Amino acid sequence: MTKSEKIEIVASLQEDFKKSEAIVVCDYRGLSTKKLEVLRQNARESNVRVQIIKNTLAHLALENAGKSGLELKDTNIYLWGEDQLSVSKVASKFEDDHEQFKIKMAFIEGSVADVAKVKALAKMPSRNELLAMLLQVWNAPLQNFVIGLNALKTKKESE
Asked: In three state form, how does the secondary structure of the chain look?
């Protein structure tokens, strides 16, 4: 890889990292290419980017994006996106399904986060799930009222 190619990669990653709410660093050692393709497919569905990046290039891009503090060692695969819940859910679900895949650390909400925080975020409901819960709560009294009226109607008709 030439120096100009490296500069282009760092600049592109820097822009992506600036826009992202969460960056999760994981160890993928021992995973086959087919399994990594499954990860990429799951990430694509959730609007999450996945890429294997050299640690030096990732370190430069993170520093330039103002997101420093991650200790980058060994083999790493990076997951990032604009929605921290989506990134956490994709990484956590894939880790649960594959033994070799391990979450190392993350950069969430402007600071370095540990695995426990990523797991906690993965368990939280998404915006759409929260809206569905809220609609169920709002709908329940009306639904119960209609059921009551219907029961009263059938009782009156039977008399």
From this structure: CCHHHHHHHHHHHHHHHHHCCEEEEEECCCCCHHHHHHHHHHHHHCCCEEEECCHHHHHHHHHHCCCCCCCCCCCCEEEEECCHHHHHHHHHHHHHHCCCCEEEEEEECCEEECHHHHHHHHHCCCHHHHHHHHHHHHHHHHHHHHHHHHHHHHHHHHC
